[in-house]
Amino acid sequence: MSQPDLDSIKDLLPNEHLLNFHAGTPTLPEWLGDSLKIILGAGDFNQHGISNVEKFNMFDVFFCMPFDVAGSLRENVDYLLKAYDKKKVICFLDIQKPEQVESFCTLFKNRFTLVDGYGGHTPHLPMECIQKILKVGGTAVNLYEGGPGFFHTQLSSILNKKVNEITKSDAEIMLGKLILPPSMNNTSKQTIYRSFNKRLDKYIREKLQTNPSITMDWSIVPQELEGKEKFPLLAKALAVLYLYDPLPTGLKGTFQSSVRIWDTTRTYHELVVTKVQEGGKKKKRKTRKTRKSKK
């Protein structure tokens, strides 16, 4: 199991800018606001000569194990302490340890307007935690991990099932990349894509009827789009309808196009979740008791 690498900054701990969940539940500094943006999987690395904290300076909270590569952690911490004194924090915790995740979610309840992650292998918080840490009106993106490649025979087997027989394990497969035989010619490949696309479209429309917590923005799948380009949109859309069936109370999701605030040059097609109300059980409405008539 991976261990946090805090050796390079141990002379700085404890520090109100460094929230170390490995050592227990920290205390939030009083100066930290309650309309925050967080980026998961950042705060300890250096990409192309730029530290995470500098690259993602539009975020208030960074979330990482952390790891340290040739002094990268110390570089991030030093930059944050110098440039963002009493403005930003880095959270150190292990996404694989439920007690740390629970502590984090409780500590940051109703504080985030945006939850994002960097890269395809970013840590992903449980959806129940997303519901807890978002403010009403806040959004979350980059919510799930892409899967490994899968063969067309696997997808055929899944789509031969009835809509209510598809499982979350099936859905996880559809998050991957379809692998077709290298020997297959382009015409045959396009025929397979069109066949799958037609079936996926049908399944999505049926599943939307039973999972009202998620909607589909069909404008991202224009009629002229077909074949190989259309397939991953439909496969991922169907996958999230099963993975999050339903979303926790208070959350609404849409499979749509989106851009990152840290990279507006690229468009993603993904599930975007918004907190529309506080979660929890709805209170039962009180009804007047009818008076018993006198005999």
Could you write a compact summary of the structure shown?
The chain has 8 helices and 13 strands. By secondary structure, the protein is an alpha/beta fold.
What keyword list fits this structure?
295 residues; alpha/beta; nine-stranded mixed sheet; two-stranded antiparallel ribbon; 8 helices; 13 strands
What does this structure look like?
A nine-stranded mixed sheet has the order 1-6-5-2-7-8-13-12-11. The protein folds into two domains: 7-140, no CATH class; 150-246, no CATH class. It contains eight helices and 13 strands. Residues 282-295 have low confidence and may be disordered. It is of the alpha/beta class and 295 residues long.
Mean pLDDT: 93
Provide a count of the helices: 8
Total discrete domains: 2
Strand content: 15-25%
Spatial gap, N to C terminus? 75 Å
* Structural category: alpha/beta
Q: Biggest β-sheet, characterized?
A: 9 strands, mixed
Q: Which blocks of ≥5 consecutive residues have pLDDT under 50?
A: 282-295
- Shape, please? elongated
Please give the structural blueprint.
Blueprint: E1 18-20, E2 36-40, E3 46-47, E4 50-51, H1 52-55, E5 61-64, H2 72-83, E6 89-92, H3 98-107, E7 112-117, H4 127-133, E8 134-140, E9 150-151, H5 152-159, H6 168-174, E10 178-179, H7 186-210, E11 214-216, H8 227-243, E12 251-260, E13 263-275
